Fold this sequence. Notes:
A: 11 strands; globular; B: 6-stranded mixed sheet
Amino acid sequence: EADIYQTPRYLVIGTGKKITLECSQTMGHDKMYWYQQDPGMELHLIHYSYGVNSTEKGDLSSESTVSRIRTEHFPLTLESARPSHTSQYLCASSDPRGGDTEAFFGQGTRLTVV
Amino acid sequence: QQQVKQSPQSLIVQKGGISIINCAYENTAFDYFPWYQQFPGKGPALLIAIRPDVSEKKEGRFTISFNKSAKQFSLHIMDSQPGDSATYFCAASKGSGGYQKVTFGTGTKLQVIP
């Protein structure tokens, strides 16, 4: 069982609200990622981080922002939520010291913007 | 563009049968090919992975076949069980040491019927 946690699991929020999706891992992994996944669809990388104070945008353009002040914590923020942001958001981490690049995923946050 | 193409989109297999999911990639720089299994309401979890220096890897009922010249790889699930019903994602990544970005396929929803 991977030690990576996302909160909340489900969130329904009104348009224009600011939201922060939390992601924490206790494995000491330097690399962390945020993916966006629509139901039954593929995962799209929206943000990643090499380590503390390092953040980069992924393949899919996203209006969200991320921060990495601590190794174990990688929150994602939407300043003004819109219905187009409705999706599932998956956080993951990996250990660069390992020979392979297994990514450990959290259970996801299903966001609905009404 | 879709760098990793996966088929079929959905698959129904009788219990005890063989499930086969295929993936094709374009970027010859990819050097790590994992398969992830995702159950409803959960994040994806690594199932099995292969590097291009081998043509086949087997772990229990799960086998990856890899064809480097054709840039294709496939997942075979022998003696498929209802508990195998899930969405399967193939993936590919490149690079070593530094950031290793994982590109996912579009997913295959497998249903194993009794």
